[in-house]
User: Which sequence fits this backbone?
């Protein structure tokens, strides 16, 4: 949460490396062409290692991120204080004040269509979000450590005034 | 005149009709996209209703455009391997055209504005467009799906007949009984046939799902007392929407399998690894959509876990087999860098870069920050503009260059490259930057820093269009060069 800039940096570095590597591997006009058999033989030998590297990165990324999934925490916060959120074209009905440094759970639903309950912190970054769906209640666990005004924005297209669908609350 | 020549001409007719139509729709949607970004930049006064109507058309139009072009290429390639009735391809094309007309009518004059992945009950609640426009939109979608499924049925039937059932089409014996299979003189299908088979199979599944949710919505449109479960509807909508968008890439990649060897004078062979990679793709295309519902905590939790790992694993066939194989083809091949080969190779780079953006978004803790922000259109615009489109153009230009026995001048290549890659980067990066800053997607009026990045993106898009226009003019020049030589 609030890690958008970090994700952007990871993306920039990874994308730049991929572009450079692929251009480097292709741009060999200055050197003598090789027979396809030679390239294939070397390439297939390397590919085995490449496969295991990509596979390991995929599995490791999954294992490392699982502890940060938002779902299990919804059950773990049984003693948290609950706050009801009802979304409706084009407004959010939510408590005006949320306590600071205390686990809370937003019980989020919608009266009409799908909406997105996106919470933006005082610094403008997203600190949490969940969908508001008619007929369902999504439980979003949060603990606010920074006091101030938090803005709610709709993060699921919901109609003509979607962009104007905002709300807010204070954390004290 | 030999049967081969007649058959070749049939394949060409279908392919160029499909690709021409796809690129024509793409060009119009490109202009619509610039209008949307310019409106978000505050440069054009567009009211929210008009904005969302055009956005609906833009999204549906781009997917259909790229799909039609890819289906044309695949039809031609399958036609080279086995018998296909041209009339069925044109019947499917008729469904596409009828569907596109219906969708256009729902927007102009209907003002439908619920987007192409409309989430029930949105198309029916709080609408600013007449009810008939919703019905026309749904009928249009259904017609496109019917055409798509007709295409899939024809290709699936032909491939099953040609390769002796599922075992042959998917090269199962070639993988598990490789020695016996090859010793007995067996040959697996060429790589492009895997792209065709998986497109047809997954396309049939996707089309069925699209028709199911589409029919449910139509029933609700006729009788509003018939309710639909919103979570069920969301799952089906994204299974359909994500899969068909994803499949456009796998359709277009067939052009790489055939076109890149034409440029490098090397062969792209089927290997057991390639076959297994396509089996994996067959599965992952269908289940990767789970990541669209990460922020629906009511969704069954196992689907969220599977969504992340499936999204990661979906990248393995791409970077370990297809792109890796493409790089091996080009590596020290002495390939001449014509527009065709540049597009095909650059398309692989765009695929990888868009894929990195997609994988980060598919990482659940990161998705909390990125879900439904501009990051999402960032990654799929990278896929479509610098991946699918480039593969399509690459395939077109490789064919035009070969027939004209000519390549574009260095100046033309530089101008097209600067426009489509430089302008493309300038257009795409703002999506990522704004998305990382939390700017929501699908906002007619964006909060800061959205308008600033939209301004940069609009300039980038205009530069891209300039490069694309030069590319189109160059394509016409090469076509005429061929015709004039044939006349002589």
Assistant:
């Amino acid at each position: 949460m609030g890690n958008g800039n970090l994700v952007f940096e990871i993306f920039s570095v990874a994308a730049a490396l991929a572009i450079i590597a692929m251009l480097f591997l292709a741009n060999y006009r200055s050197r003598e062409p090789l027979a396809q058999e030679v390239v294939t033989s070397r390439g297939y030998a390397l590919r085995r290692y490449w496969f295991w590297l990509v596979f390991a990165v995929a599995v490791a990324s999954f294992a490392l991120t699982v502890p940060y999934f938002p779902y299990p925490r919804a059950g773990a916060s049984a003693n948290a204080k609950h706050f009801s959120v009802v979304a409706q074209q084009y407004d959010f009905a939510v408590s005006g004040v949320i306590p600071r440094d205390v686990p809370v759970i937003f019980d989020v639903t919608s009266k009409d269509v799908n909406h997105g309950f996106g919470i933006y912190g005082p610094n403008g970054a997203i600190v949490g979000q969940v969908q508001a769906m008619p007929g369902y209640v999504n439980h979003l666990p949060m603990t606010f450590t920074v006091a101030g005004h938090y803005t709610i924005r709709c993060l699921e297209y919901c109609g003509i005034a979607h962009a104007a669908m905002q709300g807010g609350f204070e954390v004290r | 005149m030999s049967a081969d020549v007649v058959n070749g001409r049939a394949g060409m007719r279908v392919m160029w009709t499909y690709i021409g139509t796809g690129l024509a729709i793409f060009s119009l949607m490109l202009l619509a996209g610039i209008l949307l970004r310019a409106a978000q930049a505050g440069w054009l006064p567009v009211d929210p209703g008009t904005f969302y109507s055009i956005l609906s058309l833009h999204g549906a139009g781009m997917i259909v455009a790229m799909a039609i072009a890819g289906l044309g290429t695949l039809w031609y390639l399958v036609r080279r391997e086995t018998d296909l009735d041209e009339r069925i391809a044109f019947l499917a094309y008729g469904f596409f055209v009828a569907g596109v007309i219906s969708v256009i009518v729902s927007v102009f004059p209907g003002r439908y504005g619920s987007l192409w992945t409309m989430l029930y009950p949105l198309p029916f609640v709080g609408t600013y467009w007449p009810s008939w426009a919703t019905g026309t939109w749904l009928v249009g979608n259904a017609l496109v799906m019917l055409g798509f499924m007709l295409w899939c049925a024809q290709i699936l039937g032909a491939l099953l007949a040609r390769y002796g059932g599922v075992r042959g089409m998917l090269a199962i014996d070639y993988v598990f009984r490789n020695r016996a299979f090859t010793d007995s003189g067996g040959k697996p299908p060429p790589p492009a046939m895997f792209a065709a088979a998986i497109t047809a199979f997954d396309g049939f599944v996707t089309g069925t799902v699209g028709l199911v949710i589409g029919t449910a919505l139509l029933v609700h449109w006729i009788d509003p007392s018939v309710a639909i479960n919103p979570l069920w509807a969301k799952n089906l909508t994204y299974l359909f929407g994500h899969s068909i968008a994803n499949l456009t890439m796998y359709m277009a990649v067939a052009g790489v399998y055939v076109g890149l060897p034409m440029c490098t004078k090397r062969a792209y062979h089927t290997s057991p690894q390639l076959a297994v990679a396509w089996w994996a793709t067959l599965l992952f295309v269908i289940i990767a959509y789970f990541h669209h519902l990460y922020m629906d905590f009511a969704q069954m939790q196992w689907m969220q876990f599977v969504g992340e790992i499936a999204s990661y694993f979906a990248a393995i066939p791409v970077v370990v087999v297809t792109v890796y194989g493409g790089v091996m083809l080009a590596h020290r091949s002495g390939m001449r860098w014509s527009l065709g080969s540049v597009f095909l190779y650059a398309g692989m780079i765009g695929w990888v870069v868009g894929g990195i953006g997609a994988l980060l978004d598919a990482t659940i803790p990161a998705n909390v920050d990125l879900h439904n922000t501009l990051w999402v259109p960032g990654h799929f615009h990278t896929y479509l503009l610098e991946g699918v489109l480039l593969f399509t153009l690459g395939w077109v230009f490789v064919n035009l260059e070969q027939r004209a026995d000519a390549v574009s001048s260095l100046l033309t290549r530089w101008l097209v490259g600067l426009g489509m890659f430089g302008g493309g980067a300038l257009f795409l990066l703002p999506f990522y930057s704004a998305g990382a800053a939390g700017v929501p997607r699908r906002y007619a009026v964006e909060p800061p820093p959205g308008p600033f990045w939209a301004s940069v993106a609009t300039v980038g898009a205009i530069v891209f269009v300039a490069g694309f226009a030069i590319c189109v003019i160059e394509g016409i020049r090469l076509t005429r060069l061929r015709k004039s030589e044939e006349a002589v």
